[in-house]
Amino acid sequence: MSAARRGRYLIALAPFACVSATGCGDSTAPARPRPRPNIIVTISPTLAGAFATLGVTQTFRATVTDTLGDTLTDVVTWSASNAPGSTAIAVASDGTATVAPSAVPGDYAVVAAAGGVADTATMRVLAAPAGKLVFSARVGSDAQLFVKDFAVAGDAAQITTGSGTIAGLAVDQTTGVIFFSKGALPNVDIYRVAMDGTSLANLTNDVAQSNQGPSVNPVTHDVYFSRRGTSGSATQIFRMTPNGGAPVQVTTGTQSKIQPAVSPDGNSLAWGELLPGSSQEIMTAAIDGSNPVQLTSRTGINGGALWFSNTRILWSFLAPGVGGDVYSLDVGNPSAVANLTNGAGTSTQPSGGCAANTAAIVRTGASGTLAYQLDLGTSLAVPYTLPVSRTVAFARRLC
Description:
- By secondary structure, the chain is mainly β.
- It folds into two domains: 39-126, Immunoglobulin-like; 132-398, 6 Propeller (Neuraminidase).
- The chain is 3% helix and 50% strand.
- The strands form nine sheets. A four-stranded mixed sheet has the order 2-9-8-5, with no helix packed on it. A four-stranded antiparallel sheet has the order 12-11-10-33, with no helix packed on it. A four-stranded antiparallel sheet has the order 13-14-15-16, with no helix packed on it.
- A hairpin with a 5-residue loop joins strand 31 (368-375) and strand 32 (381-383).
- 38% of the residues are buried.
């Protein structure tokens, strides 16, 4: 065998040479330690929000795993960025971030670190909301109306008293007058009241009817609502002037129609229609109720329609075992449905927002039932933090 071949042969064997300090074949030789897999830190939610001047607490969660998917027990440490405001965000050891009422609007980084690895979430602080929030909340066994003026410090003011539940409310954006339905079934009436609780008037005053879910035409200021008689006939949509008077029936047919909504130009009407079985679908029509068209086809409860524009509708969808979300579509393309809330609690009753591309919703979650501002672009829902609003059922904005 040549020297060159012997050299190649010896080099090939070299990696298999015995290197044990205790001798080859010794079973007592210590095993080499297995390298630790890379650590992965994940924060949820990745985006949360608060209004400046109101303050809020938001609990972030961090999970620590390795690249094999195993959960690790490494201690998580939390911190927040100093910008835009140095004392705006404080994060406790459990991941609860508290936004100071003096926080400067902007995006703040909330950081969770473990094992030398970190993940970052964003706490978005919005400018103080404008206008007022009108909402219903339970006081004892009854429901009452509250108004929060965001220009004034302090909590919301209760503006109604008396017994009964509230079954819908609307706010005239021009006059600031509130319309709401209140009573004990089957005797529910439509009322009108000023923002300060004065000038309360019963507009329907009819013990033989159930009048619910008022909506204001922003052009004519007429009030649209659903009326159910005691004879068992289908619930229909009616119209009356803002001062009351004899209501005029707008819709017909054998299926009950509830929760009317009027488009911004005052030309179109939408409502929830109870179809055979357990389905309720969104219908649209001309403002006089003519030429009705079924807009949705989803087994479950489609209701609380809101005309976000003259062509775009938002509504809430609830189905057994599904929870509830707010959806949107363009009436010219009803098959292109977008889920705006994506399962983060049960979200219902959308209404107009005051900031661009926003809506007000009611959401039931871990913190109770609150009113939120929903950003339609990012699906970020920011709560209007009000102590008495934790049983809110309806919420509307006055811009």
